[in-house]
């Protein structure tokens, strides 16, 4: 994937140790409490060496403002290699026959609040998907904070409208889960409030026709709740595809 320049921002593939370290540092600031006070703290794991890392930078200064990583798989038979497979039983997706990619560790610098950053990140993802013929995009979408009550509105919306098709539905694997689809199936979500409470990345998935697991995993290390999220590229509405590709050009 060649560099993508839009407005103030540039998205590119990370090259070498310095780029990886910069991404790990931004992830630490975004995900680990107190990491902003210690410049030596990095967020890293063995999947970093297997993935392609995308960096979004402010063009003039070169400052890293967003990053994420991608693990490409030839089809569902490789789903067990994914980061998500540590937390979700994904045997249903082993039947998926097309190329897939896991997007993970997505984060934006907490000091930056420009919506164009997310737009450029999705433009880069769109270019990658088109270049490689990906048919399914998936990953773990995180809510900051493990307090279920704090996310009740958003989880109720997921339960009411966005649970995965039965043929792809992830099963429980982690010992620490919240079965929100059962717990909130009778709740009536406030649509506007629920969408505002949704993490921006997950909100974008849903707007494109994405779906989620019927349970959330509690990640005590990162102090998050996360849901497995999938998006079949063929299911994205045509108008949304045109919009994404206009950004990706």
Could you walk me through the main structural features you see in this protein, from its secondary elements to its overall organization?
The protein has one domain: 3-Layer(aba) Sandwich (Aminopeptidase), CATH 3.40.630.30. The N and C termini lie close together (12 Å). Helix 2 (115-132) crosses helix 7 (238-248) and helix 3 crosses helix 5 (191-197). The mean pLDDT is 93. It contains seven helices and twelve strands. The strands form two sheets. Strands 1, 2, 3, 4, 6, 7, 9, 10, 11 and 12 form a ten-stranded mixed beta sheet that branches. Strands 5-8 form a two-stranded antiparallel sheet. With 249 residues, it is an alpha+beta fold. The radius of gyration is 17 Å and the shape is globular. It is 30% helix and 26% strand.
Sum up the structure in keywords:
alpha+beta; 12 strands; 26% strand; globular; Aminopeptidase; two-stranded antiparallel sheet; ten-stranded mixed sheet; 30% helix; 249 residues
Task: Indicate the CATH class.
Answer: Alpha Beta
Largest sheet: 10 strands, mixed
Number of domains: 1
Q: Which assembly state applies to the chains in this document? A: single chain
Helix content: 25-40%
